[in-house]
Amino acid sequence: MATPGPSTVVDASAILAGAASKFPSIAIEREEAIQVDLHYLAAYDPNPIDVAQLSTSPSPYLLSLARDSTQSLIAALFAQPITRTHDGPVATLPSDPNPELLALPREKPLPKKREATKWEKFANAKGIQHRKRDRYEFDEERQEWVPRWGRGGSNKKEEEQWIHEVKAGADADFDPVLSAREARKSRTLKNTKAALKNAGVTKAAQAAEQKAAAERRSQQTATKAELEKGLVRSRGATASMGKFDKKLEGEPKVRGQKRKFEPTALPSASTEAAQNRAILSSLSASSSSAATKRAKAAHGGQKYTAGEGKDDVVNSRRAVRFASKGQGARAMVEGKKGGKAGKGKGRR
Length: 348
Description:
Strand order of the largest sheet: 1-2
């Protein structure tokens, strides 16, 4: 085969046609054009899916659809105004989405416009431009950039220096490092108060917010306690009283009331005597309350003062005990009945 010389003309149309046949065309032909939204960099294909082709070869069919949509998106990108930069060509995208294609609903309501602070109003009136300070500043002594605050910050320069000057007449226990730290914290607190005052946050508003937060926390705690109590009560509805039920994750352990037992061997005799006196006083208090109720009923429901007629009751009990020889009033009544029956039989 003869090679063409320098003056030979070669027809490359056949070569280009053969190379182009190996790749799909960049011109997308569809019944309905693919819709492109450059704001979201999204492409929407409104054409129906071929069910038969999808069932026979799903992967190649879906890949061809994705390729066509991507080709339409890239073609739309290159149709936008392009700026040449050092990083390459940059396309300018539209700032607003296309509402005709897809309108996404908003989850949250639109935020309210923040009211300007006192300083912002003053700055706007005077034409003062806000300038944000840099995070770092240059230290002339150390000849390096240091942070304004935080670890190794320039605001802690007085605290971290190796030598401190103490004024004449200072106390013997004066600590210059602690004094510098307290001065820095006082400046920080002063700036915080000024910022809150500038934002219109008063002490009354802070107190109301703290009170509302405390009420919310107490309500949450009460609700949690009620739920736990309800869960414990529901456990007792089974035959095993919840002993063999499956425990839930994070379920609190049911704590019963612990009984307190006194030690068997008391430390001293005075402790035992004090316990006995406490038992006797409780018993006497209960018996005196019962006697008061009986006396009140005997007086016909009239007002009865505790201790009224107490001596008479005690004397009567002593007389009954002496007459019955310690057997009680019931033995005296039974003895009288027996004596009357015996006398009747003797007369006969």
